[in-house]
Predict the structure.
Amino acid sequence: MSASARMTPLNSNGNRAMRIATFSFLLSASFLAYAEQPPKNEPLPPPPMTADGSAVDEPEVTITKKSEMTVEEYRTNGKLYMIKVTPKYGKPYYLVDDQGDGKFARQESLDSGFRVPRWIIHNF
């Protein structure tokens, strides 16, 4: 036997067995992915209501149109927390009460990139 015939990296039987094993694995994985059923879309329950019949988390929006601008005031539980001012010419800007103390800071957009959770767990 020559030296080149003895030095094959994989003989044909080993290569064939590896191909069959890979094919079997891929075939079984594709059947499992196909057999998995997507979750059923069930309708969501209605949002909780307050005593007066309005939704709990829904803000109250008051829109005031003036000749030079439009002002939108956003309130939750009667407390003003944000004002959106849209001038007739130019970009809209926001006045936001971040701390809840009535002092508004101007923001050019609501997307600041970094969002700190502002959940109210309990009011005293």
